[in-house]
Amino acid sequence: MPTVAPLDLDGHCIAAVFLSDIPHFALADGTVHRLDNGHKQVTAHDGLLCATVTEKGDKMITGGEDGKVVAVSPAGAIEVLAEIGRKWVSSVASGPQGAVAFASGRTAFVRFADGKTKELQHPRTVEGVAFSPKGMRIGAARYNGATLHFPAADGKPVELEWAGAHTGITFSPDGNFVVTTMQENALHGWKITDGKHMRMTGYPGKVKSLSWSAKGRWLASSGAPAAIVWPFQGKDGPMGKAPLELGTRGNTMVTAVSCHPADEFVAIGYADGMVMAARFADQKEVLLRRQGKGAITSLAWDRAGRRVVFGSETGDCGVIDISG
């Protein structure tokens, strides 16, 4: 039976992650808590809006209401990577070769490892940024679609159009597809080589959490009373295929998903604080954590795939050891 080590914090958890296998919890008030031979904390921002982890898993990159982009080390060291004044940093992404992307208003910024920063202007607000796994390329989610940039070059960006507000963005691990979350209850995708569209609809709620499986064969999503898992094995992705529905629980909405780092199953967090795991092959389910005080906002696995860290909107956080 999985064991749960709880950590009760005061406030909304934006991101629960492992940094060098140490559990970290970034809260909306700007504090970052960690469980490292006891409970420790540092202040990264005056109001924290977004957070992600570097590819190596050795730093958390955060953006705040104070206009700062910060790197937090596993030991709690704070390094300010960028300051843009009194503007909110609404989205951050970590990329190859130490690059970081972030968004504020209509501008996407790319900060290279040498500290140089490039600004990429857009006609409407940039709601989300992500790096492609192949080469130095970023995607920006915006109103009516997404824009793909090669920030190290001066070429024209690629515009991917689809009517509506696009609020987040992710690339498939093989770099062949880009998928956005939308203000309406849907995902939209494009095949990058030919711009073919992929409509992923039918959600009763907004999709706020996405996670690719280890080899990129599946894309798990929140926004329904089950984890909706789209198949991406074929050359045209999920077009014409039905998704898996894992961990269905009546009318209780799935609020967070995180695929296992090696095997084809997913951790699923719910609006009532419950956490389950479900396998893609046979849809077998295992209860990882009973209901809690608030909706699960963030889930992440450690590198060995034995522990899951979770955060919630009310601050009841913790670590689940699935090996018992």
TrEMBL record:
What is the protein name for this chain?
A: Anaphase-promoting complex subunit 4-like WD40 domain-containing protein
Sorted alphabetically, which keywords does the UniProt record give?
Repeat, WD repeat
Task: Tell me yes or no: is Ion transport among this UniProt entry's keywords.
Answer: no
Q: Which PANTHER family match?
A: F-BOX AND WD REPEAT DOMAIN CONTAINING 7, WD40 REPEAT PROTEIN
Tell me where in this chain the Anaphase-promoting complex subunit 4-like WD40 domain is found: 261-322
Transmembrane domains' residue ranges:
none
- Which SUPFAM superfamilies is this protein grouped with? Quinoprotein alcohol dehydrogenase-like
The scientific name of the source species is Aquibium oceanicum
What InterPro entries does the annotation carry?
Apc4-like_WD40_dom, Quinoprotein_ADH-like_sf, WD40/YVTN_repeat-like_dom_sf, WD40_rpt
Please give the superkingdom of this protein's source.
Bacteria
